[in-house]
Amino acid sequence: VTCHSRFVAPPMPKYATEHNGVTLPPVCINETRNKKGKKRLHHVFVISDWGGVLPGHKGNVGKGAVNHLTPADHTPFGSHIRDRVENADEWAQHRVAKAMKLRAKKFDPDYYLQGGDAFYWGGIETQCGTPMHMHPNTGQTNQIFEEMYTGPGVDNKQWLGVLGNHDYGGWMYIGAWDQVVGYTWGGPGSTGRWMMPAQYWAVQVYYPDFIVDYYFMDTNNFDTMSE
To answer: What is the reported pTM?
Structure first.
């Protein structure tokens, strides 16, 4: 098997749907050993519904707004109703990132899997249909992803993922979800870690004594209605 040491995306498409169903070239993760000569265990970190809202963006304006990146606040409505914990809820993403950094330094994951909902409430705040190569600079990819998740075991590790309903725009699905896919090929502040070449895609990873088949599925169509 001809393998790559990192996940390799196909060429940048003209439209975000162009690579739907693509299978990336296989990746090989080689055996490594610790300082005592023992085989190092392999780790993969998984995270989902992990993003936040920048100051001045939808969900972080008006009453209750804060002057920093904060998670989307579900506490006032629906099945999530509860009292808001001041000075805790508003820092949830930062605290998760801090905990991840500590564990990543210890376990050194091979890569990360992310299940969507990176950009609340309504995805990248520009119009869907913006040409893929333009990479609108809303500040979201940089502050919500690049600057938030750093450190030993995090830096230079690729994040493989799919779109969540909020990445599509929330309840209206008109956000710039295509730009979330497009960030795979770079953008303002990109470190080259983002890997989402299509709405649904696959890749095979070879380890020394087993193989993992990853199928990244988009199930958001089950959450859509005609009106």
So the answer is: 0.94
